[in-house]
Design a protein that fits this description.
The complex is a heterodimer of chains A (627) and B (322). Chain A has 14 helices and 30 strands. Chain A has 627 residues and is of the alpha/beta class. In chain A, the strands form seven sheets. Chain A has a seven-stranded mixed sheet with strand order 8-15-14-13-16-18-17, with helices on both faces. A six-stranded mixed sheet of chain A has the order 29-28-19-20-21-30. In chain A, strands 2-1-7-3-5 form a five-stranded mixed sheet, covered by helices on one side. In chain A, strand 13 and strand 14 form a beta hairpin. Chain B contains ten helices and ten strands. The chains are: A alpha/beta (627), B alpha/beta (322).
């Protein structure tokens, strides 16, 4: 088979003829930018072919001499040498590890999914000569009734271990709904059992270890991004060509393993200590993590493979934890309301209280839950990854150096997470920036930049459209200007419009309005905190009393942590998933109408935003070029 | 037992918009035209006031009539090369207004300059006493140069100028404010987009009473129902008090009817459809009447026979003042 080599670096891979260079790059572990998933639509995967023969499919992009689109160039019989210019390289994101609040020293707690049981077994005798296996099971059933499974990997060492410890073994068990699964039998010193908790987002993954005193949170981008920014493009990739699903699975499993490696390193633990993994994520992400076929999720009537999964061997999906470790996935409600939302309901206690509350999870898909201890209704709207900092010119996820706050004080000011030099803008920064620019009249109510309204507006490179320069390259950590483009604004307006419209339709379907909602909780991983006033000013959140709005952070990870820490929470989240009723918006007659009305700053219906409409700043800015 | 009243009353009315200015008002028009003012749903004379009948404008294009159906063209022989003569003829036919389409300004149509277009405006004003609608080419780069110049030469005439769109409204709004014209806000077949354009115009200082909405137009047989329902919803919202949807509608009925094969296919090709000479004007008038029922106030036609038919129909069905 022909070999494709990539420069810079020394990666190469053998591929069958007919493989695209983009595909070859992915297989070789070279990250080439591609926003369209290799369909020839985005023009981002420009490479220079230095040697070898290729078939070039037609493209609608004007390429310079020597440039080719990696997705439109197919390998023939000969070896190929490819140079990937810097602009086409997907920035290979290292895993970021941040210090957060430390967990107690006794983590995981006794009530967690992971049990450490000190058994005292009667030694075998001629009268009591059952096998070691049965003796262990008998001991476990005396501890707690149920069905226990002892994998052959544990059985192999069992006879020696039991005798070494004088029939007083420390047994590590993960609980299952019917009993448990034995992970380790030893002297209590061979493993220090802990749980990896991971939120598998469409755009970014975040993870923590439930381990004694653990204080680290790790995050990274979802590597599937190179196949498209949202779940739909990734599902299409799975149905498109052979091996698509396997590729998607291995990418996300690789991400989880990278987070795992970073966390065990930071905590001074070993992979073998990680005996359980708890994963939350939307339905498609969980499907892809497990390698379940997702293609019917995007086809009417939108049905997934499984929403309630039993604990499964982590090794079966390629997670590099303790070989006997178990993976627990949080349950989904429907194809578009997943475990991240059931986790959010659990974490916020929405299903516990009598008062009516709303949870808004602002991710690549926006999900909304309205409910109380009496009932829960939910829906999902495709918001796009704008608030997650993906697909924007200078977007970044919330990490040290991300601009997470912008305000006006004698000029536009900003701050970064942990005060690091600025490397880009995260979701909370985008909310502030858009609100400030609206107030200053730099954008009009459609979000269009107003020429001449600010000396920071410049024509974007190679286009007639304007862009707003927030941080010049010389002050930015990457050396590149940090900008807000017209396209970025359009994405942000559409994203907030989708969320607001979904909430409106859900409320109307219950014959309620905002006044009925005691508390609106905004969740998401797009910043450490948000400026609620600005979120209302751009119409992401409704114009209600500000003390009714609360930013609750990444409730997906928080809920998954709760499940890992408590058997009761695991049972509770299963019950939550079964209690939630899903409203399908894609076929709802009012949704498109509400969406168009909401794609305006703050909203087409100014009466819905009395405290922020009739904006004085906007008028004064607009009047400057009046004749 | 008394019969219960089924009359419906609304809390608000559609704005009255007056176009044109006579010499006493600083212009040169022989009269002005006012549209709007309805206090209820169209034609419901038993329950609402209709102070102004719908107005009919005839289209005049400075790019001639190339591509127009023969059935329309035959009325325009000897006129289509001269916007002044053409506009004078419209007045003779009994139009209420003239709608000058500046199509020749588009690069594909010869790229007539702003000054040349302004001369066209002047010729129409000199040759015809009717109030004037001035309509650009739907290309911001052209419109933002041509329309301000035309607004200047028509200063004081209180024309209706268009169109302002969500993506491009500031230049035209500034020109209309400076030279005292009314403005058309265009939004393709969507009530929210229509409202958004009105808000944007208000934000740059245009009074909402000076706006006429153009929801785009679909002729009978060509998607009329979509426009109809958008207009109907906007009208109900406006009458119920939404100040940003109380603007009258302008509709380009003539232009859209010319796209419909039923209105232009000759009898030889479709014998069962009958004479195209009868069918073409009827189709145009029927489209206008249909959209009148949805709330249309200002119709831009092409075929003078359609003008006569629509006028006759209006005389019969439009509610007379009580």
């Amino acid at each position: 088979m022909p070999r494709v080599s990539f420069r810079p670096g020394d990666a190469s891979v053998e591929v069958p003829p007919g493989t695209s260079l983009l595909e070859a790059a992915t297989r070789a572990g070279v990250r080439v930018r591609s926003d369209c998933g290799g369909r020839g639509a985005c023009g981002r995967c420009i490479v220079h072919v230095e040697s070898g023969e290729l078939t070039r499919l037609s493209t609608r992009f004007d390429l310079e001499e020597g440039e080719d689109l990696a997705c439109r160039s197919l390998v023939l019989e000969s070896d190929v040498g490819v140079f990937v210019p810097e602009a086409s390289r997907e920035v290979a994101e290292e895993v970021t590890t941040r210090e957060v609040e430390a967990l107690p020293e006794d983590s995981p707690p006794p009530e967690s999914l992971l049990k450490r049981i000190g058994l005292e077994l009667p030694p075998p005798s001629l009268e009591d000569n059952v096998a070691d296996h049965d003796r262990l099971l008998r001991g476990l059933r005396q501890w707690r009734k149920g069905h226990y499974e002892v994998p052959v990997g544990v059985l192999r060492g069992l006879p020696c271990v039991l005798r070494e410890v004088g029939w007083k073994p420390q047994v590590t068990v993960t609980v299952t709904p019917t009993g448990g699964s034995v992970l380790n039998v030893g002297n209590g010193r061979s493993v220090r059992p802990c749980v990896l908790v991971v939120d598998v987002g469409t755009t970014a993954l975040k993870a923590r270890l439930l381990a004694p005193g653990s204080k680290w949170q790790a995050s990274c981008y979802n590597s599937q991004i190179s196949y498209g920014p949202d779940v739909i493009t990734r599902i299409i990739h799975c149905q498109g060509d052979e091996g698509g699903l396997e590729r998607m699975q291995s990418l996300v499993v690789g991400d989880v393993n990278r987070l795992l490696a970073a966390l065990v390193r930071a905590s001074g633990l070993a992979r073998e200590d990680v005996c359980a993994v708890v994963a939350s994520g939307n339905t498609t992400m969980i499907h892809l993590l497990l390698g379940l076929h997702p293609i019917w999720i995007r086809r009417e009537p939108y049905v997934g493979c499984s929403y309630h999964l039993p604990p499964i061997p982590a090794a079966d999906v390629g997670l590099e934890v303790n070989p006997q470790g178990r993976l627990f996935c949080l349950p989904s409600v429907s194809s578009y309301v997943g475990g991240d939302i059931t986790a959010g309901v659990l974490a916020t206690g929405l299903s516990e209280e009598a008062g009516l509350r709303m949870l808004v999870d602002l991710g690549t898909n926006g999900e909304i839950v309205i409910g109380s201890s009496e009932f829960m209704m939910c829906c999902s709207a495709s918001a796009g990854p704008a608030f997650e900092g993906e697909g924007s010119a200078s977007g970044t996820r919330a990490m040290p150096g991300a601009i997470d706050g912008v305000w006006y004080e004698d000029g536009v000011r900003w701050r970064t997470i942990d005060g690091e030099p600025p490397l880009g803008i995260c979701g909370s920064g985008y909310i502030d920036l858009l609100a400030v620019l609206l107030e200053q009249g730099v954008v009009d109510r459609t979000g269009r930049f107003q020429e001449g309204s600010s000396d920071r507006l410049h024509p974007a490179e190679g286009g007639a459209r304007l862009e707003y320069l927030l941080v010049p390259g010389e002050e930015a950590s990457g050396g590149k200007d940090i900008v807000l483009t017209q396209g970025d604004v359009e994405n942000l307006v559409r994203a907030k419009g989708a969320i607001y419209a979904a909430a409106t339709v859900l409320l109307e379907s219950l014959e309620l309005d905002w006044s009925a909602i005691e508390n609106i909780m905004l969740a998401g991983g797009f910043g450490d905190k948000i400026n609620v006033e600005n979120a209302v000013r751009i119409g992401l959140l409704p114009d209600v009393e500000r003390d009714r709005i609360e930013f609750v952070g990444n409730t997906s990870l928080e809920g998954a942590m709760m499940v890992a820490s408590s058997e009761d929470s695991y049972a509770a989240v299963e019950a939550i998933a079964r209690r939630m009723t899903y409203l399908e918006l894609s076929t709802h007659p009012d949704y498109m109408d509400e969406f168009v009305a909401a794609c305006f700053l703050p909203h087409t219906d100014a009466e819905k935003f009395p405290s922020v409409s009739g904006n004085g700043g906007l008028r004064s800015g607009a009047s400057s070029d009046r004749r | 037992m008394p019969v219960p009243s089924v009359k419906e009353s609304f809390s608000a009315a559609i704005n009255e918009v007056t176009i044109g200015a006579t010499s006493g008002e600083g212009g040169t028009r022989s009269r002005t035209v006012t549209i709007g003012g309805d206090t209820g749903l169209p034609l419901a004379g038993f329950e609402a006031e209709f102070p102004n009948p719908p107005a009919i404008a005839m289209e005049v294009s400075n790019a001639g009539v190339e591509g127009w159906p023969p059935e329309v063209k035959r009325h325009l022989e000897g006129l289509s090369q001269d916007v002044g003569k053409w506009a004078a003829k419209c007045e003779e036919w009994g139009a209420d207004m003239v709608c000058l389409r500046l199509r020749a300004a588009h690069p594909d149509e010869g790229g007539r300059s702003a000054d040349q277009c302004a001369d066209d405006v002047k010729r129409v004003l000199e040759n015809c006493g009717l109030p004037l609608i001035i309509w650009g080419v739907d290309d911001p780069e052209v419109d933002n140069v041509v329309l301000p110049r035309c607004a200047q030469v028509a200063s004081g005439e209180n024309c209706l100028m268009g169109t302002a769109k969500e993506k491009d409204y500031r230049t035209l709004a500034a020109a209309c404010l400076a030279d005292g014209h009314k403005i058309i806000g265009e939004a393709p077949c969507d009530i929210n987009l229509s409202k958004q354009v009105n808000i944007l115009l208000e934000d740059v200082g245009v009074s909402v009473e000076d706006i006429v909405m153009y929801p785009t137009t679909g002729a009978l047989g060509f998607g009329m129902i979509y426009i109809y329902s958008v207009m109907e919803r906007a009208r109900l919202a406006g009458l119920s008090g939404d100040k940003l949807l109380q603007q009258p509608f302008v509709l380009t009925v003539g232009e859209e009817t010319c796209r419909v094969k039923e209105a232009k296919t000759p009898e030889e090709e479709e014998p069962s459809w009958g004479s195209v000479r009868a069918r073409a004007p009827l189709w145009e008038a029927a489209t206008a009447l249909g959209l009148l029922d949805a709330g249309g106030e200002l119709f831009v036609l092409r075929n003078p026979e359609a003008l006569a038919q629509l006028r006759e129909a209006l005389d019969r069905i439009w509610p007379k003042a009580q």
